[in-house]
Amino acid sequence: MLEASRVFSDYVRSSRDTKAPVIPRIDELDLTIPEKDGIGTAGIWDDIQTICGAATNTWSERFLYKLYASPTPIGVVGEALIGLLNNNAHVFQASPIGALIEDRVGRQLAELARFPVGTAAGLTFPGGSYSNMHALMVARNRRFPELKRSGFTGAMARGEWRRPMIFTSAHAHYSIEKAAVAAGIGLDNVVSVPTDADGRMDSHALRMLVEKALADGGAPFFVNATAGTTVLGAFDPIDEIAAVCADHGLWLHVDASWGGPLALFSSDDRFGGYRVDRADSFTVNPHKLMGVPLQCSFLLMRDGLAPMREALGLGASYLFHGGSPNVLDDVGDATMGCGRRPDAIKLWLAWRYYGTEYFRRRLANARRLALDFADMVSTRPPTALGHWRLAAAPQSTCVCFWFVPSQLGAHPTPQPSWGDATRLLCTRLNYLGHVLVDYATVDLPAGSLPTFFRLPLNSPHVTKETLASVLCAIEQTAKALLDEDPRCFDADKS
Amino acid sequence: MLEASRVFSDYVRSSRDTKAPVIPRIDELDLTIPEKDGIGTAGIWDDIQTICGAATNTWSERFLYKLYASPTPIGVVGEALIGLLNNNAHVFQASPIGALIEDRVGRQLAELARFPVGTAAGLTFPGGSYSNMHALMVARNRRFPELKRSGFTGAMARGEWRRPMIFTSAHAHYSIEKAAVAAGIGLDNVVSVPTDADGRMDSHALRMLVEKALADGGAPFFVNATAGTTVLGAFDPIDEIAAVCADHGLWLHVDASWGGPLALFSSDDRFGGYRVDRADSFTVNPHKLMGVPLQCSFLLMRDGLAPMREALGLGASYLFHGGSPNVLDDVGDATMGCGRRPDAIKLWLAWRYYGTEYFRRRLANARRLALDFADMVSTRPPTALGHWRLAAAPQSTCVCFWFVPSQLGAHPTPQPSWGDATRLLCTRLNYLGHVLVDYATVDLPAGSLPTFFRLPLNSPHVTKETLASVLCAIEQTAKALLDEDPRCFDADKS
After folding, report:
1. Which of A35, A51, A138 is the best residue to mutate to test the B interface, defined by the most B CB atoms within 10 Å of its own CB?
2. What does each C-alpha distance from B381 to B388, B394, B403, B471 come to in angstroms?
3. Which sequence positions carry the modification called N6-(pyridoxal phosphate)lysine (chains A, B) (predicted)?
4. What integer pLDDT is reported at residue A493 of this predicted model?
5. What angle do CA B12, B17, B21 make, to 5 degrees?
6. pTM, to two decimals
7. What's the domain count of chain B?
8. Which domain holds residue A463?
9. Less Cβ around it within 10 Å: N or C end of chain A?
């Protein structure tokens, strides 16, 4: 344990070094598994150091690749604690403390979401996709209760049946589609609702699509609104969407895996005014904007855990002995899983450690940095190498932009060749490994945007200097690529 | 970090104390979350000690409650390492080392399972239920490929459709039924196959039930065989089941969440001769018999990851950029989730540390203890308090038995009142908290057994002395209950 603390502390120190690579080169690694005797204490610390040295460095402020970032130290301690205790949050007696903490944190999150106090509750799932999938399953089985027993074929054999239909924005996370595949609903019954120019779901289009589906004999039952889309970070207009759902009796789920903490903690009206409480269920991933290590995802239910139990519970007697007045008994039966890591412990610990105010500050800082960075990109002076263009005004804490090499001219509107340049630059940049960034694209009413750089702002270690250095690194990479091949960015090249 | 190592080491020492409770009393706990400022470093170690003190003590050899047990120290280090690195195993670049290790461990497990080398591969899922569910989804979409796009309603609208049917033993884990609910197949289409007197699936009954389903116009497609049932620890006869599957073109999945390591590592022919390689997919949970902290579950696929990608992949372009020749790219797309903890790292680390031979010894020890314990129960002399009866010969490492209080007489066959006594004794025993054991029941061809004690043997800390002390504790509890109420066990009482 002492050795672990030394190795781990060294790792944190070296990872935060400004020269440390974000993606280390992995050369020859000996990953063989000993047939007979293990390497024991003598060799294992070398192994651990090898893994540390070969791991993607999420502690660096130059890890700007995905929606999660540097874990907080207390988060790591929480993770180690969960491993140490090896408690299981499926039945109360297997971990009373895990159940109590999960209940407490779930209720606190529900309160921040302005869900009804005392009724609303939440459970953790192994990631936002699973939280979203559970919400869909609960909504499906509540609307079509015969499915649990009869399945689709049994239910349909008994008479007229309408197609269960799901609505989600064109910019929403693909987990909704995966959940539809899992649920036997199929991709054809996931209606993609177009967005406005900012990437927010067009609620008029939603209403029309729902009404059309009804007119065509479909059975709309589930709308997924996103708070913080994966690429642009947009917040779908929840009040308008909730009105459509209320008019047609649809389950409203909010996938706030990314933007949820902004909605819960932010004092900025843009996010804090977001009326999550109009939803039936709500996913938030503290492993993203709150710095808890992967995974920590909560699914909050406005009406508590009862609908989950009803939809999915089987009450397997060998495990769930029931008969207890304790509502925290047997929560595992409300999920599609069985054994459960008590992930809430790490969020509780971090929340106790930092307090609510810290998260408000952290989120305000991320938002401010996004605005500053957007400003930095749009005002950065062009050079002989090229110029900079914002792809969209930052909706929350993602910044999307192009570097347009001079070879591609100075078009007022985005060109497909900008996308090729982005992919080329990004691939080389990430190969070099000093910064790790990502690219994406989206469809907007005016058409599909060429591939752009997408930087999520999250880690409190990121500063304006970090971001300026990323822009420099992109310019330097452009120069290096041009030095190798002066025609590398030419539009006719790709 | 230093403080963490001190607190954690103290915890391990005190948890292994022979007097330490397994379920501590939880009195007043302050779980409040600070509105404004956090408690910081000053208070957090008290919090951590509070949690440690209130947690269920899985390190104790007297934790004999569920199928997991004491985590190995290297497992805890592995868990902490995963938290520290905060790497994500969804796309290769987010964690090359995580992907390489997962691939390596998956192939090593597949090799032990005698799956075709070079083809078979595995991925981790957040628990055995999710592994089983993924296997079912893959099998469903492979057999009915139109479901991915059209869903059941679309597919059925296009013409004649037969009910997809699943077969699993009456003693199998309930996750198969949950998966059927999730998949839109429904509980009515899960055919429960009876077992023989030892709790092993009756393969003749399976064949008859499959043929009956076909004759009735159903579409059998998936058989779940269990290697290590949850209660009796039975191994379904895989060769006979595989023959039925081959004859009718059914997907054979083996849920070896519990017994898998015996099948993979044991030199005992009873388990080591188990031909896992006859299956299409195979779930094994190293977090059970291998002492890796929760969760660590592998789903192995005989034909590699391609069927997973085909069945579930959407290739969301914002995340999965594709175009790489690397087969380890974008493994997340092969799952129903998105972000993934690289759980394989902790198994790899433990395997490197201990070597294969350690696991063979550990498993042989667990099996030997089960046989010894069964012997101990059946030969333990009766006292004035009552006598002992085995509920079943131990199929692998679970021992199931009754303590029959004298008040209930000396019937040659199990009586319902024995079950009441078991529940009463177990509840009191667990309330006292010095040992934690569980009870269960099963249906056998001769009828349903009254509730019995079920002890899974797993932890290497358990000795014959531990087990003798459990039997003593049950007798003492019986005495204490009788002292309080001499009629507590009377058959007419319940």
Report:
1. A51
2. 8, 20, 12, 11
3. 288
4. 58
5. 95
6. 0.97
7. 1
8. 380-493
9. C
